[in-house]
UniProtKB/TrEMBL annotation:
It holds the Pfam family Sigma70_r2. One of its GO terms (biological process) is DNA-templated transcription initiation. InterPro entries: RNA_pol_sigma-70_dom, RNA_pol_sigma70, RNA_pol_sigma70_r2, RNA_pol_sigma70_r4, RNA_pol_sigma_r2, RNA_pol_sigma_r3/r4-like. Residues 211-237 form the RNA polymerase sigma-70 domain. PANTHER family: SIGMA FACTOR F FLAGELLAR (PTHR30385). The keyword Transcription regulation applies. One of its GO terms (molecular function) is DNA binding. The keyword Transcription regulation applies. It comes from the Bacteria. This is RNA polymerase sigma factor for flagellar operon FliA. Keywords: Cell projection, Cilium, DNA-binding, Flagellum, Sigma factor, Transcription, Transcription regulation.
Length: 250
């Protein structure tokens, strides 16, 4: 048995055994909370060991401890004192796995956020570069409206990809949320109806978060051509949405 597990298979002694019996015998939340308290220091030590060897600087020790608590709770819910080894022997790999999974999930999320910021910044830059020259107020207003429309449609497409509300941990059944889900479904259906090149560009850009430069290399087209096809595709989507009663007139 590892030195870490030996720290309290004392926690599997008389008091621990009584708590496990109470939990499995219907003792419910009170027994569970007492078991968490009994083994929390063990989870803290495991979190501390991984934190000391950390290679990713984006998380604090409290984040590691939170992941360890989640692993501890999962282990308590799955442990069978009549069949499994001592609890801490059973819990150690589960707490360790919960911490590592939490770190990976956070790292992936931060990478997605950074990628999305980069793609959105490029999207704004591409749209702004099409601003009309001179001081024609009507032309400028029209361009600003088109810029807003492009960003709005882009937002809907983004939400139908990596950042989908239906993947949240709870259901949002408000009227606005239901409308947004319906709109996303319509946009997904409209994507299928676009010409192949336009569909590819929107899918790569909004659903896979690839930049125009990356898409240009992938499709063997110029970046300017990708930008043009992107604009044409957004225009087609906007007109389809307007024809279906969705107002993007701003």
């Amino acid at each position: 048995m590892s030195a870490l597990a030996q720290l309290d298979d004392a926690g599997d002694g008389h008091d621990g055994a009584a708590l496990w019996a109470a939990l499995r015998g219907g003792g419910g939340q009170e027994a569970r909370e007492r078991l968490v308290a009994l083994h929390l220091e063990f989870a803290r030590i495991m979190a501390g060991r991984l934190f000391a060897r950390r290679t990713y600087a984006g998380l604090e020790f409290d984040d590691y401890l939170q992941f360890a608590r989640e692993g501890l709770l999962g282990a308590i819910d799955r442990y069978d004192a009549t069949r499994d080894a001592g609890f801490r022997t059973f819990a150690a790999p589960r707490i360790n796995g919960a911490i590592l999974s939490g770190i990976q999930s956070y790292s992936d999320m931060q990478e997605q956020i950074a990628t999305r910021k980069r793609v959105v910044a490029e999207r704004v830059r591409e749209l702004r570069e099409e601003a009309p020259e001179g001081r024609d107020a009507n032309a400028l207003f029209s361009h600003l409206a088109e810029l807003a429309v492009g960003l709005a449609v882009g937002f809907v497409l983004d939400q139908s990809g990596m950042y989908r509300a239906e993947e949240a941990g709870y259901a949002d059944n408000t009227y606005a949320a239901v409308e947004m889900r319906q709109l996303r479904e319509r946009v997904r259906a409209m994507l299928v109806e676009l010409p192949e090149r336009q569909r590819q560009i929107l899918s790569y850009h909004y659903l896979q978060q690839q930049s125009f430069g990356e898409i240009a290399a992938l499709l063997a087209l110029s970046k300017a051509r990708i930008s043009q096809l992107h604009k044409e595709a957004l225009t087609a989507l906007r007109e389809s949405l307007r024809g279906g009663g969705v107002d993007y007139s701003f």
